[in-house]
Amino acid sequence: MSIWWSLHLRREAASVPLARRFLLGTMETAGVDPDISFDLSVALSEACANAVEHGGDHRVQEDQEGQGVPRDPWDVWDELPGAASGQYRVTAYLDGEKCRIEVADSGPGFPARRTLRTSAQQRGTQQHETHQQHEPQQYPPLNAEDGRGLCLIEQLADHVHFGNRPGSGAVVSFDKVLKWRKDALLMVS
User: 164: closest CA among 116, 119, 112?
Assistant: First the structure.
């Protein structure tokens, strides 16, 4: 058995704990180990906070409206004038031994030059630094106001991908192998 859900949330600070509680409730009901649930909920909170802070650019929508780009009233990314880029989407899949979470927004996206690695690749880089030459880890300075959340997601998840949606917007997806409680409803057979 598997669980799949998707939330469309406003880019407001109050949406972050809402998404986190929804995920934790799902994990608790399914019987996922609390430590795994906690790691995923912290990573989700960071991804949602990133979407709330950086996930919209009102100028993009205004430029499109000025050029006569037609709006599809059923497209969740099209919004009413004056509310451009006011939402983001969280999707979670619990299937078999893995949970995959995706947070997508309609903002400007990630810079093209950002080099992204999975957390497994980062751990491999740390373990084999003496045997191979790798580029140094690119962590933001401790006094930086931005960028630490993405690093935290990389440390908490097994696989992470930061990318851009076609057109406009960022997508953060990450997954983690699940551990189950003995009384789990969705215990993997």
Answer: 112
